[in-house]
Amino acid sequence: MGADGLPDPEDGVRDHRLGRDIASAHHLLRRHAKLAYTVLKVEPHESRFVAEVHGVDLARPLPPQHEAALLQAWSRHPVLVLRGQQLDDASHGDFAARLGAPAIFPGAAGDARIYGSANVDGMGRLLPEGDERATLLRMNWHWHVDGCYRDRPNRAVVLRAVEVAGEGGDTLFADLRLACASLPGTLRSRISGRSCLHSFAHMIRCCGMPDISRDEAEGLPGARHPLVWRRADGSESLFLSPPYMSSIDGLGSDETRALVDELARWATQERFVYRHRWQAGDVLVWDNRWTMHRVLLYDLSHHRRVMRGATLLGDEAVTG
Fold it and tell me: From the centroid of its chain, how far is CA 112?
């Protein structure tokens, strides 16, 4: 109002400017609230080789700064946990491709970069007892490293949970770096300089499955790897995949099995192990070179467990 009590023409201008300023302030608040929500946060687990990552939506392309932060976190923590993700096979495969070269599964339904690991058939029915696919799933109940029977073991796995078992079905991870660094001197000296043959055929026999054919065996000759993986940067880890380990240099079969069992008992002590209790929507990324893993037993005939995964191809040989 003016001094004479009449409306001041400037009031309308000021009101307009005030409204514009308020609208601008609200826009900034919304923008910063959104940014705050999407800030990537890495929360290390008490098992220091594991971290949970917050503030990432893997269904959308990652901003460059998020991708860089995620890769940095992965270099420090071989197992990353990302919860509450809503992925389909295409976005799953796209995310995996940002981390490495995905293996291709020609017989896969849908995106060939994604494989299924489930105790249900294509119609969603639980697999009958004795089904070969159920037998293959049980092989995952043993500690192992994926692709250990290849010259270049698999680099990593990106696994997502679609349905989780009501009981059991958790996944355990063992930190093979810390297990190696903590080896007693006597055990360390016994494995120094030794290598072991990792054989797919040996694993089949250990798991009680029928032997593979001669042609299949020739196509999967196995690979010999040092028991201690030494890298150019000086880092070391044990390289263990017990069901596949058929013969250690200089040892007979009984001695090999005894030493493998001793190393496995050492590496899977509670202090080296993380247990992941799956929730639907979880995505786990793990470095296959630093860890071994296994699935805890669950009743395949009663509890549905549907997982989808991408395998990243190996990019280095195991060196001693």
Answer: 19
Model confidence pLDDT, tens digit, residues 239-258 = 999 999 999 999 999 999 99
Please state the domain extents for the chain: 1-38, 41-312
C-alpha 114/C-alpha 122 separation (Å) is: 15
Residue 136 is predicted with a pLDDT of: 81
Query: Please, which residues have CB within 8 angstroms of residue 215's CB and are 6 or more apart in sequence?
Result: none
Contacts (Cβ under 8 Å, ≥6 apart) of 300: 119, 126, 127, 134, 137, 138
pLDDT given at position 27: 53
**Per DSSP, which regions of the chain are E strands?**
41-44, 50-54, 79-82, 115-118, 156-163, 171-175, 195-198, 223-226, 228-230, 236-238, 245-248, 273-276, 283-287, 291-295, 306-312
24-52 CB burial, b ≥16 within 10 A, e <16:
eeeeeeeeeeeeeeeebebeeeebebbbb
Fold adopted by 41-312: Double-stranded beta-helix (3.60.130)
Half-sphere exposure of 67 (CA within 13 A, CB side): 12
The first and second tokens of residue 116, run together, are 């299924």
Cα(105)–Cα(87) distance, integer angstroms: 19
Strands 273-276 and 115-118: what pairing? unpaired
With tokens 């496995």, the residue in question is 264
How do residues 181-192 score in pLDDT, each as one tens digit? 999 999 999 999
* SS3 call for 282: coil
* Residue 218: per-residue pLDDT: 64
